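Incident log entry.

Two folding requests arrived from the same account within the same minute. Monitoring flagged them as a possible duplicate submission, but the sequences differ. Recording both here for audit purposes.

Request one:
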Amino acid sequence: MKMTVITVGKIKEKFFADAIKEYEKRLSKYCQLKIVEVSDEKAPETLSDREMELVKDKEGERILAKIKDTQHVITLEIKGGQMTSEAFSERLSVLALHGASDIVFVIGGSLGLSDAVIKRSNEALSFSKMTFPHQLMRVVLLEQIYRAMRIRAGEPYHK
Protein backbone atom coordinates (compact mmCIF):
# COMPACT_ATOMS: atom_id res chain seq x y z
CA MET A 1 0.00 0.00 0.00
CA LYS A 2 1.26 3.48 -0.89
CA MET A 3 0.43 6.44 1.26
CA THR A 4 1.29 10.05 0.59
CA VAL A 5 0.74 12.92 2.99
CA ILE A 6 0.58 16.28 1.25
CA THR A 7 0.85 19.15 3.65
CA VAL A 8 1.12 22.91 3.43
CA GLY A 9 4.18 24.37 5.12
CA LYS A 10 7.31 23.04 6.72
CA ILE A 11 7.85 21.58 10.16
CA LYS A 12 9.54 24.21 12.30
CA GLU A 13 9.77 22.60 15.74
CA LYS A 14 12.33 19.85 16.33
CA PHE A 15 9.99 17.84 18.56
CA PHE A 16 7.41 17.58 15.75
CA ALA A 17 10.15 16.65 13.26
CA ASP A 18 11.44 13.95 15.63
CA ALA A 19 7.96 12.48 16.10
CA ILE A 20 7.37 12.46 12.33
CA LYS A 21 10.69 10.69 11.71
CA GLU A 22 9.79 8.08 14.30
CA TYR A 23 6.42 7.33 12.70
CA GLU A 24 7.98 7.27 9.23
CA LYS A 25 10.41 4.63 10.52
CA ARG A 26 7.65 2.60 12.16
CA LEU A 27 5.39 2.80 9.10
CA SER A 28 8.12 1.55 6.73
CA LYS A 29 7.23 -1.99 7.85
CA TYR A 30 3.61 -1.62 6.69
CA CYS A 31 3.44 0.74 3.73
CA GLN A 32 5.36 2.92 1.35
CA LEU A 33 5.04 6.41 2.87
CA LYS A 34 5.91 9.69 1.23
CA ILE A 35 5.52 13.14 2.76
CA VAL A 36 5.21 16.04 0.35
CA GLU A 37 5.45 19.60 1.62
CA VAL A 38 4.12 22.44 -0.50
CA SER A 39 4.96 26.01 0.41
CA ASP A 40 2.46 28.06 2.31
CA GLU A 41 1.33 31.40 0.97
CA LYS A 42 2.65 34.35 2.95
CA ALA A 43 -0.20 36.49 4.20
CA PRO A 44 -0.77 39.15 6.86
CA GLU A 45 -2.66 38.30 10.05
CA THR A 46 -5.85 40.06 8.97
CA LEU A 47 -7.31 39.22 5.59
CA SER A 48 -10.60 39.91 3.89
CA ASP A 49 -12.70 36.92 2.90
CA ARG A 50 -11.60 37.38 -0.71
CA GLU A 51 -7.92 37.52 0.28
CA MET A 52 -8.35 34.32 2.33
CA GLU A 53 -9.84 32.56 -0.69
CA LEU A 54 -6.94 33.72 -2.87
CA VAL A 55 -4.42 32.33 -0.36
CA LYS A 56 -6.25 28.99 -0.20
CA ASP A 57 -6.50 28.89 -4.00
CA LYS A 58 -2.75 29.40 -4.43
CA GLU A 59 -1.95 26.73 -1.86
CA GLY A 60 -4.59 24.51 -3.46
CA GLU A 61 -2.94 24.77 -6.86
CA ARG A 62 0.32 23.57 -5.29
CA ILE A 63 -1.48 20.66 -3.62
CA LEU A 64 -3.35 19.60 -6.76
CA ALA A 65 -0.12 19.64 -8.78
CA LYS A 66 1.13 16.81 -6.54
CA ILE A 67 -1.94 14.56 -6.91
CA LYS A 68 -2.26 11.96 -9.67
CA ASP A 69 -5.62 11.15 -11.25
CA THR A 70 -5.38 7.55 -10.07
CA GLN A 71 -4.85 8.38 -6.39
CA HIS A 72 -7.58 8.15 -3.77
CA VAL A 73 -7.62 11.48 -1.93
CA ILE A 74 -8.67 11.90 1.70
CA THR A 75 -8.71 15.50 2.89
CA LEU A 76 -8.50 16.35 6.56
CA GLU A 77 -11.35 18.75 7.28
CA ILE A 78 -13.24 19.84 10.38
CA LYS A 79 -16.49 19.03 8.55
CA GLY A 80 -15.29 15.58 7.50
CA GLY A 81 -16.57 12.30 8.86
CA GLN A 82 -15.26 11.03 12.15
CA MET A 83 -14.50 7.40 12.96
CA THR A 84 -12.82 5.23 15.53
CA SER A 85 -9.28 3.96 15.00
CA GLU A 86 -10.71 0.50 14.30
CA ALA A 87 -13.10 1.91 11.68
CA PHE A 88 -10.24 3.87 10.09
CA SER A 89 -8.19 0.69 9.88
CA GLU A 90 -11.13 -1.12 8.29
CA ARG A 91 -11.64 1.75 5.83
CA LEU A 92 -8.03 1.50 4.67
CA SER A 93 -8.45 -2.26 4.27
CA VAL A 94 -11.62 -1.81 2.20
CA LEU A 95 -9.92 0.77 -0.02
CA ALA A 96 -6.99 -1.59 -0.64
CA LEU A 97 -9.38 -4.48 -1.35
CA HIS A 98 -11.17 -2.39 -3.97
CA GLY A 99 -7.96 -1.35 -5.73
CA ALA A 100 -7.43 2.05 -4.09
CA SER A 101 -4.02 1.19 -2.68
CA ASP A 102 -2.44 4.56 -3.53
CA ILE A 103 -3.91 6.90 -0.94
CA VAL A 104 -3.19 10.60 -0.49
CA PHE A 105 -3.99 12.45 2.72
CA VAL A 106 -4.11 16.23 2.45
CA ILE A 107 -3.52 18.61 5.36
CA GLY A 108 -4.25 22.22 4.48
CA GLY A 109 -2.59 25.37 5.69
CA SER A 110 -3.69 27.68 8.47
CA LEU A 111 -6.72 28.87 6.47
CA GLY A 112 -7.84 25.42 5.39
CA LEU A 113 -8.29 23.92 1.94
CA SER A 114 -9.39 25.49 -1.32
CA ASP A 115 -12.70 24.56 -2.91
CA ALA A 116 -10.78 22.91 -5.77
CA VAL A 117 -8.93 20.57 -3.38
CA ILE A 118 -12.16 19.74 -1.55
CA LYS A 119 -13.82 19.00 -4.90
CA ARG A 120 -10.94 16.66 -5.89
CA SER A 121 -11.18 14.81 -2.60
CA ASN A 122 -12.75 11.36 -2.60
CA GLU A 123 -13.63 11.67 1.05
CA ALA A 124 -13.13 14.00 3.99
CA LEU A 125 -11.90 12.91 7.40
CA SER A 126 -12.04 14.79 10.68
CA PHE A 127 -10.12 13.91 13.80
CA SER A 128 -12.06 16.41 15.88
CA LYS A 129 -14.35 19.40 15.67
CA MET A 130 -11.47 21.35 17.17
CA THR A 131 -8.82 23.12 15.11
CA PHE A 132 -5.23 21.86 15.34
CA PRO A 133 -1.99 23.37 14.09
CA HIS A 134 -1.11 21.66 10.80
CA GLN A 135 2.29 20.63 12.18
CA LEU A 136 0.66 18.77 15.06
CA MET A 137 -1.95 17.33 12.71
CA ARG A 138 0.79 15.70 10.66
CA VAL A 139 2.00 13.84 13.77
CA VAL A 140 -1.55 12.85 14.73
CA LEU A 141 -2.31 11.58 11.22
CA LEU A 142 0.88 9.51 11.06
CA GLU A 143 0.14 8.04 14.48
CA GLN A 144 -3.36 7.07 13.38
CA ILE A 145 -2.10 5.52 10.14
CA TYR A 146 0.43 3.55 12.19
CA ARG A 147 -2.28 2.48 14.62
CA ALA A 148 -4.49 1.43 11.69
CA MET A 149 -1.69 -0.63 10.17
CA ARG A 150 -1.07 -2.38 13.48
CA ILE A 151 -4.77 -3.14 13.85
CA ARG A 152 -4.89 -4.52 10.27
CA ALA A 153 -1.92 -6.75 11.07
CA GLY A 154 -3.62 -8.06 14.22
CA GLU A 155 -0.95 -6.50 16.40
CA PRO A 156 -1.78 -5.14 19.87
CA TYR A 157 -0.98 -1.43 19.36
CA HIS A 158 -4.59 -0.28 19.56
CA LYS A 159 -5.19 -1.30 23.18
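Request two (distinct sequence, not a duplicate):
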Amino acid sequence: MQSDKQREQESQALLFTPLVGQVGEPLPNWLFGPAGVAGLPAPLLAPQGVNIAVGIDIIEVERVRRAVERHGERFLRRVFTEQEVQQCRSKAARLAGRFAAKEAICKALGTGLHGVSWREMEIVQLRSGRPSVRLHARAKQRADLLGLSAFDVSIADLAQFSLAVAVAVQTAPSHRT
Protein backbone atom coordinates (compact mmCIF):
# COMPACT_ATOMS: atom_id res chain seq x y z
CA MET A 1 0.00 0.00 0.00
CA GLN A 2 1.31 3.45 -0.95
CA SER A 3 1.97 6.02 1.70
CA ASP A 4 0.64 9.58 1.39
CA LYS A 5 4.19 10.76 0.67
CA GLN A 6 4.59 8.24 -2.19
CA ARG A 7 1.23 9.29 -3.70
CA GLU A 8 2.21 12.97 -3.42
CA GLN A 9 5.59 12.35 -5.10
CA GLU A 10 3.94 10.37 -7.89
CA SER A 11 1.34 13.10 -8.50
CA GLN A 12 4.16 15.65 -8.84
CA ALA A 13 6.27 13.46 -11.12
CA LEU A 14 6.99 14.55 -14.68
CA LEU A 15 5.50 12.49 -17.48
CA PHE A 16 8.20 11.92 -20.05
CA THR A 17 7.98 9.79 -23.18
CA PRO A 18 10.90 10.46 -25.51
CA LEU A 19 11.71 8.00 -28.24
CA VAL A 20 15.46 8.34 -27.89
CA GLY A 21 16.51 4.79 -27.13
CA GLN A 22 15.54 1.30 -26.20
CA VAL A 23 12.39 0.55 -24.20
CA GLY A 24 13.20 -0.42 -20.62
CA GLU A 25 16.71 1.06 -20.63
CA PRO A 26 17.57 4.17 -18.62
CA LEU A 27 17.30 7.44 -20.48
CA PRO A 28 20.64 9.05 -21.36
CA ASN A 29 21.65 11.61 -18.73
CA TRP A 30 22.77 14.13 -21.40
CA LEU A 31 19.14 14.52 -22.47
CA PHE A 32 18.39 16.56 -19.36
CA GLY A 33 21.24 19.05 -19.51
CA PRO A 34 24.38 19.47 -17.40
CA ALA A 35 22.79 18.26 -14.15
CA GLY A 36 21.22 15.21 -15.79
CA VAL A 37 18.17 13.52 -14.28
CA ALA A 38 19.20 14.77 -10.84
CA GLY A 39 18.59 18.37 -11.99
CA LEU A 40 14.92 17.81 -12.81
CA PRO A 41 12.33 19.50 -10.58
CA ALA A 42 10.46 16.22 -10.07
CA PRO A 43 11.06 12.52 -10.70
CA LEU A 44 10.13 11.02 -14.06
CA LEU A 45 7.32 8.56 -14.51
CA ALA A 46 8.11 5.75 -16.91
CA PRO A 47 5.78 5.60 -19.94
CA GLN A 48 3.17 2.88 -19.82
CA GLY A 49 1.25 1.39 -22.71
CA VAL A 50 1.66 3.41 -25.89
CA ASN A 51 4.57 5.81 -26.31
CA ILE A 52 4.43 8.47 -29.03
CA ALA A 53 6.73 11.02 -30.61
CA VAL A 54 5.52 14.01 -32.58
CA GLY A 55 7.32 16.05 -35.22
CA ILE A 56 6.05 19.22 -36.87
CA ASP A 57 7.39 21.37 -39.69
CA ILE A 58 6.32 24.35 -41.75
CA ILE A 59 7.91 25.56 -44.96
CA GLU A 60 7.32 28.42 -47.37
CA VAL A 61 5.96 27.10 -50.67
CA GLU A 62 8.01 29.73 -52.54
CA ARG A 63 11.23 28.21 -51.15
CA VAL A 64 10.39 24.86 -52.74
CA ARG A 65 9.23 26.53 -55.97
CA ARG A 66 12.60 28.33 -56.23
CA ALA A 67 14.52 25.09 -55.57
CA VAL A 68 12.60 23.35 -58.37
CA GLU A 69 13.15 26.27 -60.77
CA ARG A 70 16.84 26.54 -59.90
CA HIS A 71 17.82 22.87 -59.66
CA GLY A 72 15.01 21.11 -61.53
CA GLU A 73 15.24 17.34 -61.80
CA ARG A 74 18.38 17.22 -59.64
CA PHE A 75 16.45 18.65 -56.67
CA LEU A 76 13.41 16.46 -57.29
CA ARG A 77 15.51 13.26 -57.56
CA ARG A 78 17.49 14.12 -54.42
CA VAL A 79 14.46 14.78 -52.21
CA PHE A 80 11.48 12.88 -53.64
CA THR A 81 10.76 9.40 -54.97
CA GLU A 82 9.28 8.93 -58.45
CA GLN A 83 5.87 8.18 -57.00
CA GLU A 84 5.93 11.36 -54.91
CA VAL A 85 6.83 13.50 -57.93
CA GLN A 86 4.08 11.85 -60.01
CA GLN A 87 1.47 12.33 -57.30
CA CYS A 88 2.41 16.00 -56.81
CA ARG A 89 2.21 16.71 -60.58
CA SER A 90 4.87 19.43 -60.20
CA LYS A 91 2.66 21.52 -57.92
CA ALA A 92 4.96 23.44 -55.58
CA ALA A 93 2.47 23.44 -52.68
CA ARG A 94 2.16 19.64 -52.79
CA LEU A 95 5.92 19.18 -53.02
CA ALA A 96 6.35 21.58 -50.10
CA GLY A 97 3.85 19.56 -48.07
CA ARG A 98 5.84 16.39 -48.61
CA PHE A 99 9.07 18.23 -47.82
CA ALA A 100 7.57 19.43 -44.52
CA ALA A 101 6.28 15.91 -43.79
CA LYS A 102 9.75 14.45 -44.24
CA GLU A 103 11.18 17.08 -41.87
CA ALA A 104 8.46 16.23 -39.34
CA ILE A 105 9.22 12.51 -39.65
CA CYS A 106 12.91 13.19 -38.96
CA LYS A 107 11.92 15.05 -35.81
CA ALA A 108 9.67 12.21 -34.66
CA LEU A 109 12.50 9.72 -35.35
CA GLY A 110 14.76 11.90 -33.22
CA THR A 111 17.45 12.08 -35.89
CA GLY A 112 16.93 15.35 -37.69
CA LEU A 113 18.36 14.90 -41.16
CA HIS A 114 21.48 13.31 -39.69
CA GLY A 115 21.50 9.59 -40.30
CA VAL A 116 18.61 9.39 -42.77
CA SER A 117 18.17 10.75 -46.26
CA TRP A 118 15.23 12.43 -47.93
CA ARG A 119 14.27 9.53 -50.18
CA GLU A 120 14.28 7.06 -47.28
CA MET A 121 11.04 8.71 -46.15
CA GLU A 122 8.27 8.48 -48.70
CA ILE A 123 4.90 10.20 -48.47
CA VAL A 124 2.41 8.50 -50.75
CA GLN A 125 -1.18 9.48 -51.23
CA LEU A 126 -3.78 6.77 -50.76
CA ARG A 127 -6.83 6.61 -53.05
CA SER A 128 -8.79 8.42 -50.34
CA GLY A 129 -6.35 11.32 -50.61
CA ARG A 130 -4.87 10.64 -47.17
CA PRO A 131 -1.06 10.74 -47.02
CA SER A 132 0.71 7.59 -45.87
CA VAL A 133 4.30 7.05 -44.74
CA ARG A 134 6.71 4.47 -46.14
CA LEU A 135 10.14 4.24 -44.57
CA HIS A 136 13.12 2.70 -46.33
CA ALA A 137 16.76 1.84 -45.51
CA ARG A 138 18.18 3.75 -42.51
CA ALA A 139 14.88 5.50 -41.71
CA LYS A 140 13.19 2.09 -41.44
CA GLN A 141 16.12 0.75 -39.39
CA ARG A 142 15.79 3.68 -36.97
CA ALA A 143 12.03 3.07 -36.65
CA ASP A 144 12.66 -0.64 -36.03
CA LEU A 145 15.36 0.17 -33.46
CA LEU A 146 12.87 2.33 -31.55
CA GLY A 147 10.14 -0.32 -31.81
CA LEU A 148 7.82 1.93 -33.81
CA SER A 149 4.74 0.08 -34.95
CA ALA A 150 3.03 2.91 -36.86
CA PHE A 151 3.62 6.31 -38.38
CA ASP A 152 0.94 8.81 -39.30
CA VAL A 153 1.29 12.14 -41.05
CA SER A 154 -1.06 15.02 -41.78
CA ILE A 155 -0.28 17.76 -44.29
CA ALA A 156 -1.89 21.16 -44.85
CA ASP A 157 -1.00 22.83 -48.16
CA LEU A 158 -1.78 26.53 -48.27
CA ALA A 159 -0.92 29.16 -50.85
CA GLN A 160 2.15 30.45 -48.98
CA PHE A 161 2.97 27.69 -46.50
CA SER A 162 2.82 23.94 -46.12
CA LEU A 163 2.57 22.41 -42.67
CA ALA A 164 3.01 18.80 -41.65
CA VAL A 165 2.67 16.85 -38.43
CA ALA A 166 4.08 13.34 -37.99
CA VAL A 167 3.23 10.98 -35.16
CA ALA A 168 5.26 7.87 -34.43
CA VAL A 169 3.69 5.16 -32.23
CA GLN A 170 5.72 2.76 -30.14
CA THR A 171 3.61 -0.07 -28.76
CA ALA A 172 6.09 -2.92 -28.86
CA PRO A 173 9.49 -3.34 -27.28
CA SER A 174 12.20 -2.10 -29.60
CA HIS A 175 14.48 -4.46 -31.47
CA ARG A 176 18.23 -4.39 -31.08
CA THR A 177 20.23 -4.42 -34.28
